[in-house]
Design goal:
The complex is a heterotrimer of chains A (664), B (104) and C (490). Chain A is mainly α and 664 residues long. Chain A is built from 26 helices and 2 strands. Chain A has a two-stranded antiparallel sheet. In chain A, a hairpin with a 2-residue loop joins strand 1 and strand 2. The longest helix of chain A has 73 residues. The longest helix of chain B is centred in the last third of the chain and has 31 residues. Chain C contains 20 helices and 2 strands. Chain C has a two-stranded antiparallel sheet. With 490 residues, chain C is mostly helical. Chain C is globular, with a radius of gyration of 21 Å. Classes of the chains: A mainly alpha (664), B mainly alpha (104), C mainly alpha (490). Chains in contact: A-B, A-C. Chains A and C meet through strand 1, helix 6, helix 7 and helix 25 of A and helix 7, helix 12, helix 14, helix 17 and helix 18 of C.
C-alpha cells in the first residue's frame, strides 16, 4: 500500500500547521481570510486523510512506516517516524471531520470576537498537534506532539484572557496535564533505557516489537507511568480536575478538546502502546491493565454522579466526557482495544455534536450557561433541539440507530468477559443508568417547560452553526452502520481482521439488558424532572428535585465531591508552602551561612585590627614616643645661639687641655 | 732683652684670649668675625714663633704656613662677610642673638 | 602570524581601546561594530572547524613563563567552539538590550575578550587569567551601572566568586607541585590513574569543586546569584546568565571530570544530590519571588542544575553504556547553548517591561495581553522554551540529559523531573499575573514592541525554533568531542 499519501503522511498535520502559522502572521484585520485559511487547511487535510484511509483498505492489516533520523548525538542517532495503520487512519478521519464541523461552527460562534483571526490560528495549531500525535511512530514524537496539544489547549482555554477565570483554568489545565506528562516522560525515559529505541515499529526492532522482550521486570512500571500521562490528558481520576474548568474556553474549543483532540490523546496513547501493557499477560490480564480498568471505573462512575448535580450546560457535558473516557479506559483495560477506540470515534462525533449544540444554545441565550435559566428552547431552536436530542440519545445509549449505543455495547461486552472481575461490569451498568439520567435532566431543563429569563429572547442560530450540527448528527447516526455486531467492520478493521455480514448477530441478549437500563435511566429522569417540563414550572426551577430530597448528597456532588478543595488544601497548599520554605531557606539559611561566613571574616578582621592597634602598634608607639622625648631633650642644647656653641667649644677645648695636662 | 719663645707665646695667648672674648661677647656678626680673625692671628704668630725658635730655622716652613693661613683667612673673611650680608638681607639684622634658626 | 583565535580575543580589546581613545558619540554602535567583526572571525573558525577531527584544532602555542609551566596555549575542540559561538551571539544581544555608556561598553568588550580567552585556553594559568579577567568587568558593571542594592550585590558577587577562585588556584598550585605541568591535556591523561594521592587529592578536588560550584552556581553555593542578577543592568544580567555561568559548567567538563574521575565516583551520589537540590529547590524558590528578575535568576539555577545532573551522572556511573554517556554529554552541551539563549531572552524581556513600567514586581502588571499582544506573544515563546516545550530549543537538551542520567542514576533523575513541573508552575503563574485579567491601570500606556526590539527578538526567536526543530547543526559541532570525552570520563 505504498501510495503517495501513505508515504507522505506527515503532510496531514503539516497542512494545518502551515495554515496556522500563516494565519498568525496575517494582520489582525484579515478576519475572514484567517477563517478561510483554517477551514481550507482542514478540508485539504481531510481529503488527504480520506485517501490515506482508503490506502489502508487496499491491504488490510498492514502499516506504512517511515522512519528518519532527527539528529545524531555522539555516535548514536535519535530516530523519529510516521506510521499509517488502521488505528491512525481511523483517528485521522474522525479528528478532521469533527474538526472541520467545529471550525465551520466557530465562524458563526466567534463572529463578534475581536481576536477572531487568532482563534482560528490556534484552532489549526491544535488540530495539527493532535494529528501529529496520531501519526507518530515514535514515543518521543508522540510526546512532542502531545506537549504541543497541551500547549494549544492552554492557548485556547485561556483565549478570553482578560477573564481571570479563563486564565486560571488555562493554567490549571496546563499544569495538571503536565503532571501526567511528567509521568509519561519518565516512562518514556525508562522505555528508552530498557529497549534502546523509542520507535514503535522499526522492522522488528521497535519498542512494541522486538524491544518488548528487553523490558524485563520493569514493564509494569513503564506501562503505569505511560498510563499516568494518559490519566492527565484524558482527565481520569485523580487528574480530572482540569477538564470541567476548561469550559472557560470558547465552546468550539470545548468541543474540540472533548471530542476530537486533547482528551482522545490519552485513550489513543494507551491503545497505541498497548503491547507494553500486555507484556506478561495471563489470560489477557496484567497488573497495569487492572490499574487502567479500576481508574476507568472510578472515573466513569464519579464523573457521572457529579454530572447529575451540575447546573452549567457545558460542565454537565464536561463531566459526561470524563465519564465516557473512563468507559473507554475500562474497555482498553479489559482487552477490548477495538471497542475502546470505536467508542472514542463515536464519542468524537456525538460529543462534538452535543458541545456545538450547547454552543448554539449558549449563543442563542446571550452567553448564559446556567440550565436553570433556560427552558422551552425546543420551539425556538428546533434544529438545535433535534440534533441535540440525537447526541443525547447517542450518549445515553439508546439502541439501534445511534452509534454511541453500539460502541457502548461493545465496551460492556468486553467488560462482561473480563476474567479478573465482574465488578467493573456492574459498575459500568450503573454508569449507563446515570448517564441516561443526567442527560435527560439536562434536556428537560434546557428544551422543555417554560422559557425562563435567559431564553426569553432566544432564537435559532444561523445556518453556519446549524449545518455543522446537522452534519454531525448525520455522522452520529450513519456511523452505526459499521459498528453493529451484524457487520463489525470497524472493529475488525481496527483489529486488522476481515468482517463478514451476519444479520443474526445484530440482536444480542446484552442489547436488551442495556436497552432496559437506558430506558430506566431516561424514565427515572422524566419521573424526577417532569414537573420542570410542565408549562407552569416557573418557581420550581430554583431548587433541583434531588437537592430538595437529598440536600447533603446534592451539595456533595454539586461541589464536585470537594476534590478541588481537597487538592487546594493538601497538594497545592503543600507545594506553596514548599515554595515559601525554599525561599526562606535561601534567604535566611543558605544566604545566612554565607553572611555568617562573611561576618566571621569581619570578626576576624576586627580581632586582628585590635591586636594590631592595642598590641603591636602600641609597642611601636611607645618606642617612638620615647625617642621623640629624648630628641626633644637633646634639642634643648641647640639654642641656635652661635656664640653659645662657640663658648661651649672653647670650654670643651679648655677641658681637653686640662685633661691632657693632668694626664701628662 | 732678647726675644724668647715665651714672650711670643704669651702675646699669642693674650691675642687669642682677646679674640675669643670678642667672638663670645659681641653681638654684631662682624665683630665676631673680627674676633675669630684675631684668634687666627694668634695661631699664625705661634707658627712663626715655633719656627724661629725651632731646630731647623733656615727652611721657611713656619712662614709658608703662616702665609697660607693668611690667604685662607682672607678667603674665609670674604665668605664670612658675604654670609653676613646675606643674613642681613634675609633677616634684616646682624645681631646673632636674634639669629636662632638653628635652634633644635 | 596571528591566528584566528588570537584575533578573536584581540578584537574586543581593540574595541575597548578604540572606545577609550576615540570617545565616539554612540559608543554602543562602535561596540556592536567590533562585535560584528568578532562574529565574522568566530564564524570563520566554525567554518574551518573540522567536525570529524578529534582533539584540539587551530592550536597556537607560545612559551610564556616556562619556569612555572605557564604556556600561551589556545585551541578549539567542539565544546570550546560551541561556547565561543554562544558568546558571539549573546554579547551583541546584550548590547542591544539597553543603551550603555562608553565605560560600560568598554567593560563589556573586555568581558567578551576574557570569555573568549576562557573558552579557548588550554593551560591552567592562562585559563585562570582569563577566568578572573571576566570577573572584574562584571563586578564594575554591577557596581557602577546596577540597580538598587548594587553595592552589596556587586561585592557579594565578587567576593564569593573570588573566594572560590582562590580555592581553585590553591588546588591547582598543589597539582602543579605534584605534577609539574599546567597543561589540561597532560593532566587529563594522568587523571584516570589518579592525579594525586591521599588527602592532597581530596583537598585539590574540593578546592576546584568549590571554585566551579560557586561559579555555576550549584546549590547551596548559589545565593550570590539572585542578588547579582537582580542588581545587574539587563545586558549584564544577560551575559552573566548566558555566558558567565557557562564558565563554571565548562570548568567542570574541562577540569574536574577529567582530572578527578576516581574522586567523583566516590562522592558521586552526594554531588548528584546537590544537583537535584538545584533542580528542585531553585524553581520552588522562584515560585515565591515577587520580582520578575529574581524569578528568572532562580530558574537559571534550575536549568544549570540539569547540566550538573548530566555531568555528575556520567562521572559517577561506572558501567554506563556509551549511548547514555553520549546522550547526557550532548544534552549538557545543548543545554549550555540553549539556556544561554533562552535565559538571555527572558532577561531581555524583563528589561523591556522594566523600561516601560519602571518596576518589575510580578503583581504590578495585569492584562498586558490586551495592550501589547506582540510583547506577550514573543515573551511567551521564551517562557515556553525555558519550561521545555518541545519544538523549542529547551526540550532537546533536557530530554537528552534525562535520557542519559536516567540510565545511570534513575532515582535522582526521577526526582529531578519535579523540577520540570515546578518550572512550569512558575511560568504559568507569571504569565497569568502579567498577561491575563483586566488591564492594570498602570500599564494602560504601555507601547507594544518597537521596531528596534522586534529586530532583536525575531532573529533570536527564530534561532530558538531552529534549535528546537532541526538541531543537527549544533550537534555536528561537538559530536566528535563527545565521543572522545565519554571515553575519558567513563
Amino acid at each position: 500500500m505504498n501510495t503517495w499519501i501513505a508515504t507522505n503522511i506527515w503532510l496531514i498535520p503539516a497542512v494545518p500547521l502551515v495554515m496556522s502559522l500563516m494565519i498568525l502572521s496575517l494582520p489582525n484585520s484579515a478576519r475572514g481570510l484567517g477563517a478561510w485559511f483554517a477551514i481550507i487547511g482542514q478540508i485539504l487535510a481531510l481529503a488527504m486523510s480520506i485517501f490515506a484511509f482508503g490506502s489502508t483498505l487496499q491491504a488490510p492489516g498492514s502499516a506504512t512506516i517511515q522512519n528518519f533520523t532527527w539528529f545524531t548525538f555522539g555516535d548514536s542517532a535519535l530516530r523519529l517516524g510516521w506510521i499509517l495503520d488502521p488505528l491512525a487512519a481511523a483517528m485521522l478521519v474522525m479528528i478532521l471531520l469533527v474538526g472541520l464541523c467545529i471550525f465551520v461552527f466557530s465562524v458563526g460562534y466567534m463572529t463578534d470576537d475581536k481576536n477572531f483571526k487568532r482563534f482560528f490560528g490556534y484552532l489549526s495549531f491544535f488540530s495539527a498537534a493532535m494529528l501529529g500525535v496520531v501519526i507518530a511512530n515514535s514515543l518521543l514524537l508522540l510526546f512532542i506532539c502531545w506537549e504541543l496539544v497541551g500547549f494549544a489547549s492552554y492557548l485556547l482555554i485561556g483565549f478570553w484572557i482578560e477573564r481571570p477565570s479563563a486564565a486560571a483554568a488555562a493554567k490549571k489545565a496546563f499544569i495538571t496535564t503536565r503532571i501526567g506528562d511528567l509521568g509519561l516522560f519518565l516512562g518514556m525515559l525508562w522505555l528508552y533505557h530498557q529497549s534502546g529505541t523509542l520507535l514503535f515499529y522499526d522492522d522488528g526492532k521497535g519498542c512494541l516489537e522486538g524491544g518488548l522482550a528487553l523490558l524485563g521486570a520493569n514493564t509494569t512500571f513503564i506501562a503505569l507511568l505511560i498510563f499516568f500521562g494518559a490519566v492527565g490528558k484524558s482527565g481520569q481520576f485523580p487528574l480530572h480536575v482540569w477538564l470541567p474548568d476548561a469550559m472557560e474556553g470558547p465552546t468550539p474549543v470545548s468541543a474540540l478538546i472533548h471530542a476530537a483532540t486533547m482528551v482522545a490523546a490519552g485513550v489513543f496513547l494507551v491503545a497505541r502502546v498497548y503491547p507494553i501493557f500486555l507484556v506478561g499477560a495471563i489470560n489477557g490480564v496484567t497488573t497495569s491493565l487492572t490499574v487502567v480498568v479500576w481508574i476507568g471505573v472510578i472515573t466513569g462512575l464519579m464523573a457521572a454522579l457529579i454530572a447529575i448535580a451540575q447546573s452549567d450546560i457545558k460542565r454537565i457535558l464536561a463531566y459526561s466526557t470524563v465519564s465516557q473516557l473512563g468507559l473507554m479506559m475500562v474497555s482498553l483495560g479489559v482487552g477490548g482495544v477495538g471497542a475502546g477506540i470505536m467508542h472514542l470515534l463515536a464519542h468524537g462525533f456525538f460529543k462534538a455534536l452535543l458541545f456545538l449544540g450547547a454552543g448554539s444554545v449558549i449563543h442563542g441565550s446571550h452567553h448564559e450557561q446556567d440550565i436553570r435559566k433556560m427552558g422551552g428552547l425546543r420551539r425556538v431552536m428546533p434544529v438545535t433541539f433535534l440534533t441535540y436530542a440525537v447526541g443525547m440519545m447517542a450518549l445515553s445509549g439508546v439502541p439501534l440507530i445511534f452509534s454511541g449505543a453500539w460502541t457502548k455495547e461493545e465496551v460492556l461486552h468486553s467488560a462482561a468477559h473480563w476474567p479478573a472481575s465482574r465488578v467493573p461490569y456492574f459498575l459500568l451498568l450503573a454508569g449507563v443508568v446515570l448517564t441516561a439520567l443526567y442527560m435527560t435532566r439536562q434536556v428537560i431543563y434546557v428544551f422543555f417547560g417554560n422559557r425562563r429569563q435567559a431564553s426569553e429572547h432566544a432564537r435559532e442560530s444561523s445556518s453556519v452553526m446549524t449545518i455543522p450540527l446537522i452534519v454531525l448528527a448525520i455522522c452520529t447516526v450513519a456511523f452505526s452502520i459499521v459498528l453493529t455486531p451484524a457487520w463489525p467492520w470497524l472493529h475488525n478493521y481496527l483489529t486488522r481482521e476481515s468482517a463478514h455480514f451476519d444479520m443474526a448477530q445484530l440482536i444480542q441478549p446484552m442489547l436488551i439488558l442495556s436497552f432496559l437500563l437506558v430506558a430506566a435511566g431516561i424514565g427515572l429522569g422524566v419521573a424526577i424532572y417532569r414537573r420542570i417540563a410542565l408549562p407552569d414550572s416557573h418557581q420550581l426551577v430554583d431548587l433541583d428535585p434531588i437537592a430538595k430530597a437529598q440536600p447533603a448528597l446534592f451539595g456533595f456532588l454539586e461541589n464536585k465531591m470537594w476534590i478541588d478543595e481537597l487538592y487546594d488544601r493538601t497538594v497545592i497548599a503543600l507545594a506553596k508552602r514548599a515554595a515559601r520554605v525554599s525561599d526562606w531557606m535561601d534567604r535566611y539559611f543558605w544566604d545566612g551561612l554565607v553572611r555568617g561566613f562573611a561576618d566571621l571574616g569581619q570578626l576576624f578582621g576586627f580581632v586582628m585590627n585590635s591586636v594590631d592597634e592595642r598590641g603591636i602598634n602600641a609597642g611601636v608607639d611607645e618606642t617612638t614616643a620615647g625617642t621623640r622625648g629624648l630628641g626633644r631633650l637633646m634639642s634643648l642644647a641647640h639654642s641656635g645661639q652661635i656664640q653659645t656653641y662657640l663658648g661651649v667649644i672653647a670650654i670643651g677645648m679648655l677641658a681637653l687641655l686640662l685633661l691632657y695636662a693632668w694626664l701628662a | 732683652m732678647t726675644p724668647t719663645l715665651q714672650i711670643f707665646l704669651i702675646i699669642s695667648a693674650a691675642l687669642f684670649a682677646i679674640g675669643l672674648l670678642a667672638a663670645l661677647s659681641r653681638h654684631h656678626a662682624i665683630f665676631i668675625l673680627i674676633g675669630i680673625e684675631m684668634m687666627l692671628a694668634a695661631a699664625n704668630l705661634n707658627f712663626i714663633a715655633f719656627w724661629r725658635f725651632g731646630p731647623q730655622a733656615p727652611q721657611p716652613v713656619g712662614v709658608m704656613i703662616a702665609i697660607f693661613s693668611i690667604a685662607i683667612a682672607a678667603a674665609e673673611w670674604t665668605v664670612g662677610l658675604a654670609m653676613v650680608i646675606a643674613v642681613y638681607r634675609h633677616f634684616r639684622t646682624t645681631n646673632v642673638d636674634q639669629l636662632n634658626q638653628l635652634k633644635g | 602570524m596571528v591566528g584566528l583565535i588570537n584575533t578573536l580575543i584581540i578584537i574586543p580589546l581593540v574595541g575597548t581601546i578604540a572606545l577609550y581613545i576615540g570617545r565616539p558619540k554612540n559608543p554602543r554602535a562602535v561596540a556592536l561594530l567590533f562585535n560584528a567583526l568578532a562574529a565574522f572571525f568566530a564564524f570563520m573558525l566554525w567554518q574551518k572547524f573540522d567536525t570529524y577531527a578529534v582533539g584540539l584544532q587551530a592550536v597556537e602555542r607560545h612559551a610564556w613563563i616556562p619556569a612555572i609551566g605557564a604556556e600561551y596555549l589556545v585551541g578549539l575542540d567542539g565544546l570550546s567552539l560551541l561556547l565561543v559561538l554562544l558568546t558571539t551571539i549573546i554579547i551583541p544581544f546584550a548590547f542591544l538590550a539597553q543603551p550603555l555608556e562608553r565605560g560600560a561598553c568598554a567593560l563589556m568588550l573586555v568581558m567578551q575578550a576574557a570569555l573568549y580567552g576562557t573558552f579557548v585556553a588550554q593551560n591552567f594559568v592562562l585559563w585562570f587569567l582569563f577566568y578572573e579577567m571576566s570577573l572584574i568587568p562584571a563586578f564594575l558593571l554591577i557596581k557602577i551601572w546596577g540597580g538598587a542594592k548594587r553595592d552589596r550585590a556587586a561585592i557579594k558577587f565578587f567576593l564569593y566568586t573570588f573566594l572560590g577562585s582562590v580555592a581553585m588556584l590553591l588546588a591547582f598550585l598543589g597539582i602543579f607541585f605534584a605534577k609539574g605541568t599546567f597543561d589540561f591535556a597532560e593532566l587529563a591523561a594522568s587523571g584516570k590513574a589518579g592525579l594525586l594521592t591521599g588527602n592532597l587529592a581530596w583537598l585539590a578536588f574540593w578546592g576546584i569543586f568549590l571554585g566551579l560550584a560557586v561559579k555555576v552556581p550549584l546549590f547551596p553555593f548559589h545565593t550570590w546569584l539572585p542578588d547579582a542578577y537582580e542588581a545587574a543592568p539587563t545586558g549584564v544580567a544577560m551575559v552573566l546568565t548566558g555566558v558567565l555561568s557557562k564558565m563554571g559548567v565548562y570548568g567542570f567538563v574541562r577540569l574536574l571530570l577529567p582530572l578527578f574521575p576516581n574522586e567523583i565516583k566516590i562522592v558521586g551520589p552526594w554531588l548528584l544530590g546537590l544537583a537535584v537540590c538545584s533542580i528542585v529547590f531553585a524553581p520552588l524558590a522562584a515560585w515565591a519571588q515577587r520580582d520578575l528578575k529574581r524569578m528568572v535568576a532562580y530558574l537559571s539555577i534550575n536549568h544549570l542544575g540539569y547540566c550538573m545532573l548530566g555531568l555528575f551522572a556520567i562521572a559517577s556511573g561506572s558501567t554506563s553504556s556509551s549511548i547514555d554517556a553520549h546522550a547526557a554529554l550532548s544534552g549538557v552541551f545543548m543545554q549550555i547553548f540553549n539556556h544561554g539563549i533562552t535565559a538571555a531572552m527572558l532577561f531581555y524581556f524583563v528589561g523591556i517591561i522594566e523600561q516601560r513600567r519602571g518596576s518589575r514586581g510580578i503583581d504590578d502588571f495585569g492584562g498586558l495581553m490586551q495592550r501589547t499582544p506582540l510583547l506577550c506573544g514573543w515573551m511567551s515563546v521564551a517562557m515556553f522554551s525555558s519550561l521545555g516545550l518541545p519544538g523549542l530549543n529547551g526540550f532537546i537538551g533536557e530530554f537528552l540529559i534525562f535520557k542519559g542520567s536516567f540510565a545511570i542514576a534513575a532515582s535522582f533523575t526521577a526526582v529531578s523531573v519535579l523540577g520540570l513541573l515546578v518550572t512550569a508552575i512558575v511560568f504559568m503563574r507569571a504569565m497569568q499575573a502579567l498577561f491575563s485579567g483586566p488591564l492594570s491601570a498602570s500599564c494602560s500606556t504601555f507601547p507594544d514592541l518597537l521596531r528596534s526590539e522586534k529586530l532583536v527578538i525575531i532573529p533570536v526567536t527564530l534561532l530558538m525554533f531552529g534549535l528546537g526543530i532541526a538541531p543537527q547543526f549544533i550537534f555536528n559541532i561537538f559530536n566528535a568531542t563527545i565521543v572522545q570525552m565519554a571515553r575519558l570520563f567513563s
